[in-house]
Amino acid sequence: MAKTSFSCSACGASFSKWSGRCEGCGEWNTISEDKGLSSGPSKKSLGVKRGRTIPLSDLATRETPPPRACCGVGELDRVLGGGLVAASAILVGGDPGIGKSTLLLQAAARFAKAGVKTIYVSGEEASAQVRMRAQRLGLTDAPVQLAAETNLRDILTTLEAEKPQLAIIDSIQTMWSDHVDSAPGSVSQVRAAAHELTTFAKRNGVSIIMVGHVTKDGQIAGPRVVEHMVDTVLYFEGERGHQFRILRAVKNRFGPADEIGVFEMTGGGLAEVINPSALFLSERGEPSPGSVVFAGIEGTRPVLVEMQALIAPSPHSQPRRAVVGWDSSRLAMILAVLEARCGIPFAGLDVYLNVAGGMKISEPAADLAVAAALLSAREDMALPADTVVFGEISLSGALRPAPQTENRLKEAQKLGFTAAIAPGGSKTVSVNGLNLRKSSDLAGFVGEFFGAG
Ligand SMILES: [Zn+2]
């Protein structure tokens, strides 16, 4: 008898037995039994029948870089690594209702207008609904072909006959493959469908974009279970209360990962934001304690964002540590370093940290800006408003230089900042009109800018 296996619908981890909670991601009730393929691989060993010989090449063989198609939406083309690569599979994940279908319909229209033959298959909505959205977005003149279908076999047959260059599948969770005995949305179905589509993309030279909803419900598998199969994984992020959205490449075989594209939700759909720093800083008012501007790098591009901290005496025996847009364990580390190396305690104080505008920062170079925001809030002392801060903090309290110092400084200067605080080891670059001040360790930084330590 075949051994049964179980997998988690949230993170895709496999287990030999069922349990209520996934050890991989900690979610509850996400583990279910894998259903095998009803027409699985042959029982005979691979050695019985001979395959064909594979052509081999040496390391010096020159290959031309894959041709790319650009849609003209700069933010999208850049996140893709400089345009769409033929024969590639792309996953676009995100929370339901964040605007994935809107973005992809706009992208489909732009690619189609640029001469890329495009088919949009919706498993979520009827064609009429997609058409209505297209009308609202003013895209009806684009030569995109629509279909509302969930049967994968029929979809692949159609794609084979129509030979598009780009196919958009919205969403992977609604697709079902008839050789898998489980419901659409289950881990087995989602994996099988993604596998079929990826294989099809490679074999036929089609670019396939699959939409995947991030789900909280264990019955439906999330996009993470197929991340390893596709060439490119993009996540569409944003807070519902904010009008802007970020498309982030978390994996890209054809370009840099961590690249972001910034979009703004408007009445006419998603509009690209050419200068994200200006947008992220637009809500900034007078210099206030707890607010510090971080000169960051996202992918290949500098982005300035405001870090906001609030410190208040805690009424609880266990003070609160709340973080939005940054890593909470990283915050704990910064607080510990401030206490151990600079003698500044945060015991008995609630600490709130927020990255303004719904941006998520993962760069270690944000450490110093966070420390500055925390100190500024704690001492009730504002840093000069025209100053940006960046640099990594080590456990010893030393400051480590961040990469791309020059790009950070140039962006700051472009947006009217006149001073920057950076680690001592940073490359000396002179940017016109920008005063670069360096600190070699955290205690020195605290002493110089907050007069304590
Ligand atoms: Zn899991």
- Distance separating the two termini: 68 Å
The portion of residues forming beta strands comes to: 25-35%
**What's the pLDDT, averaged over the residues?**
88
Low-confidence stretches: none
How many strands?
A: 23
Characteristic key phrases:
single chain, 453 residues, alpha/beta, nine-stranded mixed beta sheet, seven-stranded mixed beta sheet, 10 helices, globular, binds zinc ion
Question: How would you describe what is shown here?
Answer:
The protein has ten helices and 23 strands. The chain has 453 residues and is of the alpha/beta class. The strands form five sheets. The protein has a nine-stranded mixed β-sheet. Helix 3 (127-136) links the parallel strand 7 and strand 8 (145-148). Zinc ion is lined by residues 8, 10-11, 13, 22, 24-25, 27, 30. Zinc ion binds at residues 8, 10-11, 13, 22, 24-25, 27, 30.
List the helices and strands and how they pair.
Elements: E1 6-8, E2 14-15, E3 31-33, E4 68-69, H1 74-79, E5 84-85, E6 89-94, H2 100-113, E7 118-122, H3 127-136, E8 145-148, H4 152-162, E9 166-170, H5 187-204, E10 207-213, E11 232-237, E12 244-252, E13 260-266, E14 269-272, H6 276-280, E15 291-298, E16 301-313, E17 321-324, H7 328-342, E18 349-355, H8 367-379, E19 387-389, E20 392-393, E21 399-400, H9 405-414, E22 419-423, E23 435-439, H10 442-450
This protein binds zinc ion (ZN).
